[in-house]
Amino acid sequence: MMGAVIRDTLRESINRRMGLVLIVFAVLVPIILIGMIRIEHTADGKLEVAMKGFHSLPPEIFAQSTFMGLLGAASGFWVILGVFAAAPLLMSFLEKGRADLVISKGTPRWQIFLGRYIGVFALFAGTVFLMAVVPALYLWARTGVSIRQFLIALCISVFTFSTVLALMSVAAMGASHPALPIILAFVYSMFGPQLVQRKALFYQDIITWKWAQWLMDWLYRILPKTSELVVASRTYLDSGQLHSWWPIWSSALFVAGALALSCWMMHRKSF
User: Fold this and answer.
1) Residue 242 near residue 232, CB atoms below 8 Å
2) Residue 95: its pLDDT value, please?
3) Is there a contact between 143 and 63 (Cβ–Cβ < 8 Å)?
4) Which residues contact 25 (CB under 8 A, 6 or more apart)?
5) What distance in Å separates the CA atoms of residue 226 and residue 161, rounded to the nearest whole number?
6) What is the DSSP letter of 203?
7) Which residues contact 114 (CB under 8 A, 6 or more apart)?
C-alpha cells in the first residue's frame, strides 16, 4: 500500500507542476553546465578546465568551485522549490471529499502519511542527485578528480531537507491550508541560525530571564540543526572531515520524533 501512495505522490507532483519544475531544472542544469565546460591540454600536456568565456583552471580547483556551486544550489534554491512542492503534496489527500476515497478503514493511516512523506522526499532527492551528480560524474570521467567528498556533502544537504520536511509534516497535520507549512519552513530557516547564536545575540541584553534562556536552550536541542548541517556539508566538501556529529544525530532524532507525532496526529484526525 505504501508503495502505491509513493507512486501516487510522484504522479501528483507532476500534475501540480511543481514536481515538473524540479525535474525540468534537474535536467537543464547538467545539460547547460556540461555544454559550457571546456577541457583542454596545455603545451606541457597538463589538463586545464574552463567555463566558456572564462580563464582556464587546474581540474582540482575548477571541480572544487563547481562542486561548491552545485552544493549551494542544492541547499538553497532547490530547498525553496522543494518547500513549495512539498506543502500541497503533504495535504492534498486530506482535502474534503478526497479523504473518504483515500483513507479506507482497512488502510493504516500512518502508511498513507509516510508514503506521502517518502514520495515528496524521493522527488527532492532524485532531482537533486540528477542536477548535481551528473556534472560531477562528467568531471570525474574527463579529469579523474575525486567526487567522494562532494557526494557525501550532497547527502548531508539532502538529509537537511528531510528535517525541514519533517517539520512541515507536523504543521500539515494540524493545518487546513498549505500556507502554514510553507510559512513555518521559511520562518525557521531565518530563526534557526539565530537560535544557534542565541547566547551571543540574545542572552546578554534581550533575554535575561533564566527560564527564557532555559526554554531557548531546549528549543535548540529539540529542533533540527538546519544551518549547522549546511555548514557541515560545506566543511566536508572542503576538508573531508566533520567537526561534530551532533547536528546530524540530533536532527535525525527530530525527524523520527516529528514523523511519529505526525502519524499520531493523522491517526487522531477526524474527516
Assistant:
1) yes
2) 61
3) yes
4) 81, 127, 131
5) 8
6) T
7) 2, 259, 263
- d(C-alpha 18, C-alpha 246), whole Å: 33
Q: How far apart, in whole angstroms, are the C-alpha atoms of residue 247 and residue 226?
A: 8
d(CA 161, CA 185): 10
3-state secondary structure 29-85: HHHHHHHHEEEEECCCCCEEEEECCCCCECHHHHHHHHHHHHHHHHHCHHHHHHHHH
Q: How far apart are CA 178 and CA 169, in angstroms?
A: 10
Torsion of Cα atoms, 74 then 89 then 252 then 231, to 10°? 20
Give the predicted TM-score (pTM) of the model: 0.89
d(CA 137, CA 48): 17
Total Cβ atoms within 10 A of residue 132: 29
User: What's the burial of 265, exposed, middle or buried (CB within 10 Å: 0-12/13-18/19+)?
Assistant: middle
Question: How confident is the model at residue 191, as a pLDDT?
Answer: 86
* Residue found by looking up cell 539532502 in the block: 158
E strands, 72-202, in order: none
Cβ distance 150 to 97 under 8 Å? no
Q: Where are the domains of the chain?
A: 2-268
Residues of the chain under the 70 pLDDT cut = 1, 43, 45, 53-54, 93-107, 269-271
The x, y and z cell numbers of residue 269, run together, are 484526525
